[in-house]
Amino acid sequence: MIPVFAWERALQGRVARASARLVGLIRAVNIALAGEEVMTTAAPGLALAVLLTAGPSVAVLFLAAFLSARHVEAWAKGLAHRGRPRDEAENGLPSGDCAIVTIWASALLGWWAVLPIAFVMWARMALGAHWPLDTVIGVVMGLALIAPALVMR
Asked: Which among 30, 55, 93, 134 would be 20 to 30 A from 9, CA to CA?
């Protein structure tokens, strides 16, 4: 089991307090950028956008990374056994939403990907779904999955 560090508790608390008035908006934008339901239906359109901008080989690698992300996330959560801020019994490490937004944003936006990735990291902490380290590891996981496509670009 990976412990939750004191700095994570402090940072997550500050983010949650600072975002308290905007929880509804944060939740809606998070779902639009990285929600499992939205991303599942958006996968073909995102793959087409990558195909048109980067070519077929990159699109295939993108689709493979995108579709495998939730499976890798589930496997990693089974290993980590680290609770969430709102529910210590539910595994939260790594953040699958952060991995998903990292994959599609990196493939389509280049360096501009930092903006939606940072927003989803903030949102996951503001909503009490993840500790800071969960979101960082989710981004690293997303980068590891999309790296072959980014290298071929």
From this structure: 30
